[in-house]
What we know:
Helices cover 38% and strands 22% of the residues. The protein is α/β, with parallel strands linked by helices. It has one domain: Ribosomal Protein S5, domain 2. The chain has a five-stranded mixed β-sheet with strand order 1-4-5-3-2, with helices on both faces. Strand 4 (41-45), helix 2 and strand 5 form a beta-alpha-beta unit. The structure holds two RNA strands.
Amino acid sequence: MKKTVMLKKNYEFRGVLNKGICSRGFLLDIYIRKNNKKINQLGIAVSKKAGNSVKRNKIKRLIRENYRLFEKDLDVGNSIVILWKKKIDYNNFNFYDVKNDIFNIFTKLKIL
RNA sequence: AGAGCAUAUCGAACAGUCGCGUAUAAAAUUCGCAAGAAUUUAUAUGAGGAAAGUCCGGGCUCCACAGAGCAAGGAUGCUGGAUAACGUCCAGUGAGGGUGACCUCAAGGAAAGUGCAACAGAAAAUAACAGCCUUGCUGGAAGUUAGAAAUUAGAGAUGAGUUUAUAAUUUUAUAAUAUCUGACCUCUAAUUUCUGGCUUCUAGCAAGGUAACGGUGAAAAGGUGAGGUAAGAGCUUACCGCUAAUAUGGUGACAUAUUAGGUCAAUGUAAACCCCAUCCGGAGCAACACCUAAAAAGAAGGUUAAGACUGCUCGUCAUCUUCUAAAAUGGUGGCUUGAUAUAUAUAGUAAUAUAUAUACUAGAUAAAUGGCUGUUCAAGACAGAACCCGGCUUAUAGAUAUGCUCAAAAU
RNA sequence: UGGGGUGUAGCCAAGUGGUAAGGCACCAGACUUUGACUCUGGCAUUUCGGCGGUUCGAGUCCUCCCACCCCAG
């Protein structure tokens, strides 16, 4: 079971966003809620106001790549939803900015 | 080398490494009630010229059939061709633009009917009004003619005065008196006034003729010259324009030529309603089909009803339709070999068609192309498939090729 | 995927093809000792989201774009 399991349905997202714990960084908001399974589930959401489809895809790829790098070290049994902030300009960040942001938030949430 | 026009092509490349989707093969393991899914390894493969906007057209699926007619609604609108089809494309015609290469055009009908045309202007479509001209009546002015009156001048006649002589008494009478002379009178001429007639001009009224001219306006009833007329006018004529017919050329739009037409009066607007011609049944892959476990059925209506956007009628098919309630946040297919792409040949001006050969080049379903390192250069624009094709439109850093135009310079 | 709507001054907005109404706000003046209220005047820079077209003339009609909002499965 190495493959990342994704959150899919709208009710799953709503459960995490309403009842989970929130932490905010410079670029990202991350919500966490405990599920009673032995795996982590990931959901990514990027607003339509972030840009056109190319930019939104690029953002999702960066987030997914970073999550992949951190995935081995995370504690098991959580549903994680990563939201992109709307107001960030597409040209003002790179891969390392996203990496640092995710690292800081996971450290703050004490699941790393 | 500069400025530009048209057409076509490309739109970062390479290496290493970590990772992702799909297909095939292999073996087992895991998850799930099941259908089925996942994991590991190997190999192969993996976004565009616009994938975009969703503006047209078609395939495909369902709506019993996808049939007919009328109405309503919508779309298109020069000609010929191409195409599965189109609002697309190609080749032409006409109109407009550009010095030019070339570009642009929803380009049928306004004597079938209706509507609208602000302001200005006489008037925005019936031709009215002002003006011009003719005739009649009434008035005014000028000229001419006839008559009357007045004034002036000239002539004639008359005789007063002056002078002289004579007679008688200072005065009076008589006679004479010149190229002298006032008035009256007569005649003639001129001027002025009055009256009548005629002519011309003019004002008003009435009847008629006329549409050239009338400041405006986007647009004013063919244009210009000459003749003509009471005044005028296509009223006549020349040229230009317009319309029609015929002939020739062209498949055709149309072009050219000839002839005729002055009833050549009737403006513009149809991207205002409208008329004419042609076309259009509706909904969409979240369509639709299949598989698995679970579940719950009840009520009402029905051949005069209902049957996937509107109304009516006809035909035909078929037995179901509606409402309430319940049940999976299940799975698989549909899904990519097609009006396909590339190359060559033939036909055609071309769009395109036919034939042969070669190729199979994404198929996801919360959704795959990314991260890091290095090298190169022009330093990377617009931008991400979601059932599939043909177009259109819009965005786009730049690069390349071919043909052509203009200007300048040189020869 | 399909369907519908909106765009006019800083804000809310009306608008038959023929001079872009009105209100709030803002600015100036009057009134007042001063302020508020009230009254008067001004404020669309050739312009109605944008490029074109039809028309003598487009906010309005047509075409194509842009932005925003809503609905259905």
